[in-house]
UniProtKB/TrEMBL annotation:
Cell wall formation. Catalyzes the addition of glutamate to the nucleotide precursor UDP-N-acetylmuramoyl-L-alanine (UMA). Its EC number is 6.3.2.9. It holds the Pfam family Mur_ligase_C. Keywords: ATP-binding, Cell cycle, Cell division, Cell shape, Cell wall biogenesis/degradation, Cytoplasm, Ligase, Nucleotide-binding, Peptidoglycan synthesis. Residues 472-501 have a biased composition (Basic and acidic residues). PROSITE patterns: FOLYLPOLYGLU_SYNT_1. This is UDP-N-acetylmuramoylalanine--D-glutamate ligase. The keyword Ligase applies. Residues 313-431 form the Mur ligase C-terminal domain. The lineage of its organism: Bacteria, Bacillati, Actinomycetota, Actinomycetes, Pseudonocardiales. Residues 115-219 form the Mur ligase central domain. ATP binds at G117, T118, N119, G120, K121, T122, T123. InterPro entries: Folylpolyglutamate_synth_CS, Mur-like_cat_sf, Mur_ligase_C, Mur_ligase_C_dom_sf, Mur_ligase_cen, MurD.
């Protein structure tokens, strides 16, 4: 394509997943010669791009390559990317590619409103999209939320609500959004970034445009905001806001930035926000701040937030039975998100476990231990969570499920249902990634919901049968843990309270990622 900055270049795309396919297709359309490297021949074949040269398991840069476009799951330490840097070949990500394509649009670039943070990104960026659409703008949510940014740019939308993970931001050196948001920053993905400082520095890239927004109740995010070079810096708080902030006053979300003389502009009653609870309110305030900075009227903010409904696996009530509420928050894939989820409930039977990826759960347990009626743990790092509970909440009964396949969730739900009491919440908020046992967090949440509904259906049949005999049976409230030292034939099932058992969960590198929370995609995996 004449005039394209990529015409005539020889480009190597690292990864044949969703973003890799979009990048390769866009580069071909721009007149580039494209090769794709991936660890799986089947993934390369499934791209269905005959003009692409497929390379399997290559760790060196082929001769003549001008540019490498990497998928976000590839770490900077991957041998191929190290080799590219050593050879002086530029490495960018799909988001950076999208930015450069956007800047070259004949009708001028779109306006980017960028959302990042350890938790709440997908909910917030979806709220931003809802508000923009309510304002009548040609807008779409893209990025880590699902639609590749390259595809959103090539579709010609004028306003992009862009959710970016720390991985995507790391590879996006020149992106300068019209407004950028950092919701929060908590210990996460240290295995990918190498340090908390590097992780925070990646998040800070969202704040390099003219408007920077951050959650100031979160100290690391507030620090990034204070250090931002943006002309306008806006704080978001769940408390009464100061001038220059968005916050909550007398049960109403208010704007104390864009009103006359710093006066509060009412936006929407807090009780109307979904998802319910403090995190939903902060997400809504952040979305309001981002869109108000773009010139959206308060009436459109209210309409967009009224219309918004949270996505699946984000604090979704699955069922209520015998006074016990079952909530799927499988999207809580790290300790920071799990703590926020637990704070939304007074008394909880907590289902947790999976891959912690080096994150500590000590602060989470210390902060929320008084809310826990019991904990049911599963997955590869369940012993680490059990140890934190022993240190910080020793009176909380702990049950460990040693099964390493989909049956683990069914067993965990059975245990939780037996130990929960009326008025309590059985909450799936795992605090960990899912790929040791499930395809992704959605698969994990679906397994939880199916186990809850199947159990209730079975109990319904039992109760109907009992009623025919003169009444329903008394609910079993006996403890399900066995005493230490006893034997059990089906030893892959529940271990004793405060006892572990061997970790039988088999990890599946490259099988998928909890993309809404920056979960790592293994080298060559889908994105």
């Amino acid at each position: 394509m004449d005039g394209s900055p990529f015409a005539g270049l020889s480009v190597l795309v690292a990864g044949a997943g969703v973003s890799g396919v979009s990048a390769a297709r866009a580069l071909l359309a721009q007149g580039a010669t494209v090769s794709v490297v991936d660890g799986s021949p089947a993934r390369i074949e499934s791209m269905n791009l005959p003009a692409v040269t497929g390379l399997v398991g290559v760790d060196v840069v082929p001769p003549g390559i001008d540019l490498v476009v990497t998928s976000p799951g590839w770490r900077p330490t991957a041998p191929l990317l190290v080799a590219a840097a050593d050879a002086g070949v530029e490495v960018i990500g799909e988001v950076e590619l999208a930015w450069r394509l956007d800047q070259a649009r004949p009708d001028g670039p779109a306006d980017w409103l960028v959302v990042t943070g350890t938790n709440g990104k997908t909910t917030t960026v979806s709220m931003v999209e809802s508000i923009l659409l309510a304002a009548g703008l040609d807008a779409v949510a893209c990025g880590n939320v699902g639609l590749p940014v390259v595809d959103a740019v090539l579709s010609g939308h004028r306003v992009l609500a862009v959710e970016l993970s720390s991985f995507q931001l790391h590879w996006s050196s020149s992106v300068r959004p019209a407004a950028g948001l950092v919701l929060n920053v908590a210990e996460d993905h240290l295995d990918w970034h190498g340090s908390a400082a590097a992780y925070g520095a990646a998040k800070a890239r969202a704040l390099l445009g003219p408007v920077a927004v951050a959650g100031v109740d979160d100290e690391p995010a507030a620090a990034l905001l204070a250090a931002s070079p943006a002309d306008r810096r806006i704080g978001v708080t769940a408390a009464e806001p100061a001038e220059g902030q968005f916050g909550v006053s007398a049960g109403v979300l208010v704007d104390r930035v864009f009103g006359p003389d710093g006066d509060a502009v009412s936006l929407i009653d807090a009780e109307l926000i979904r998802p319910v609870g403090p995190t939903g309110i902060v997400d809504a305030l952040a979305a309001a701040a981002l869109t108000r900075s773009y010139g959206v009227a308060p009436e459109s903010v209210e309409a967009g937030l009224r219309d918004f409904r949270p996505g699946a696996h984000r604090a979704v009530v699955v069922a209520e039975h015998d006074g016990i509420v079952y909530v799927d928050d499988s999207k809580a894939t790290n300790p920071h998100a799990a703590a926020a989820s637990l704070r939304g409930h007074a008394r909880v039977v907590w289902l947790a476990g999976g891959l912690l990826k080096g994150a500590s759960v000590d602060d989470l347990v210390a902060e929320t231990g008084d809310r826990l009626a019991a904990a049911v743990l599963f997955g590869a790092d369940r012993a680490l969570i059990a140890a934190a509970l022993a240190r910080h909440a020793p009176d909380v009964p702990v049950y460990e499920v040693a099964t390493g396949d989909d049956k683990a969730m069914r067993e965990a739900v059975d245990i939780a249902s037996q130990v929960a009491r009326p008025g309590e919440t059985v909450l799936l908020a795992p605090a960990a990634a899912s790929m040791d046992m499930f395809t992704d967090y959605a698969h994990r949440g679906d397994s939880f919901a199916a186990a809850v509904l199947d159990r209730q259906a079975a109990e319904g049949v039992a109760e109907e049968s009992a009623e025919g005999d003169g009444g329903a049976p008394e609910r079993d409230t006996r403890p399900v843990a066995r005493p230490a030292g006893t034997e059990r034939a089906d030893s892959d099932r529940i271990g004793a309270e405060r006892l572990g058992g061997d970790d039988t969960g088999a990890g599946r590198p490259g099988s998928g990622a909890d993309t809404g929370s920056d979960d790592v995609v293994e080298r060559g995996g889908s994105v």
